[in-house]
Write a structure and sequence with these properties.
Keywords: ATP-binding, Nucleotide-binding, Transport. The chain is of the alpha/beta class. It contains 10 helices and 10 strands. The strands form 2 sheets. The protein has a 6-stranded mixed β-sheet, with helices on both faces. A 4-stranded antiparallel β-sheet has the order 2-1-4-5, with helices on one face. Bound molecules: adenosine-5'-triphosphate.
Length: 247
């Protein structure tokens, strides 16, 4: 099957640091790919390059064979990308539901000011409720975000990404900071979303959950490609074990 998203020959430099060196990867329609590697391997930089937040020294990034490398982030969102962040950043003065409605409205008008004016429309409300139900936090819809614990905020982050109706969901450490029970339950939710057809690329350090829910792993180490393939097979590779555990 053809790749829905590909990144070829990605090199990113921050001053004197080469964060990514000639990295290439692709994800197929409906696939659940986890991007793993030790701290500083370049995982977040790769996702930020794909979404246009980081400017590469070299890269060719395509969605469905369409070159997007020179497009601004909002155009890439329109073409189907959504990225959740490791550090959640909801609008604290809004309720849980309003945050998702705002995201749903932003996809339509692509302007924060207009989105604020637009966001009380009933179609956005209906959509937003469906996404809150999908991530199991509909019961918190009218609570101010500022009163919600991290476990709810991590789920809200996923709902906000779904609200822009992406073709490809990019998740940056969705399980970080959660206890093992919360992590396992959110991993189940993310897996279900992927099984319903969402192409998913996830950065995650929680290897037991990664192994449990991913179709394929892609491993980076020190800015370079290290391995990819079946999760259990990849984790058996000596160079992957060395990257994680040291020699
Ligand atoms: N904005 C930036 N300015 C300067 N250096 C940066 C910037 N962003 C990332 N780096 C550096 O690039 C390298 C890769 O960082 P990146 O955050 O992509 O790694 P990561 O694999 O996501 O790590 P972690 O698992 O710890 O989040 C690191 O050396 C980091 O310090």
């Amino acid at each position: 099957m053809a790749a829905i998203l590909s990144a070829e020959a990605v090199t990113v430099r921050f001053g004197g640091i080469t964060a990514l060196k000639d990295v290439s990867f692709e994800v197929k329609q409906g696939e659940f790919l986890s991007l793993i590697g030790p701290n500083g391997a370049g995982k977040t930089t790769l996702l930020k390059t794909i979404t246009g937040i980081v400017k590469p020294a070299n890269a060719s990034i395509k969605i469905n064979d369409r070159e997007i490398t020179k497009l601004p982030t909002h155009s890439r969102i329109r073409l189907g990308l959504a990225l959740t962040h490791q550090i959640v950043s909801p609008f604290k003065s809004m309720t849980v539901l309003q945050n998702v409605m705002f995201a749903a409205g932003y996809k339509k008008v692509r302007n924060i000011g207009l989105s604020i004016l637009n966001f009380s429309r009933s179609s956005e409300k209906k959509d937003a409720m469906a996404f809150l139900e999908m991530v199991d936090i509909a019961q918190y819809k009218n609570f101010p975000v500022s009163t919600m614990p991290l476990g709810i905020l991590k789920r809200l982050e996923v709902a906000r990404a779904l609200a822009i109706k992406p073709k490809i969901l990019l998740l940056d450490e969705p399980l970080a900071g959660l206890n093992s029970q919360e992590a396992s339950r959110l991993a189940d939710t993310i897996k279900l979303i992927s099984q319903n057809g969402m192409t998913t690329v996830m950065i995650e350090h929680n290897l037991s959950e990664v192994l449990r829910i991913s179709d394929r792993l892609y491993v980076l180490d020190n800015g370079k490609y290290l391995a990819s393939g079946n999760p259990k097979e990849v984790m058996k590779q000596p160079e992957v074990r060395t990257a994680y555990l040291g020699s």
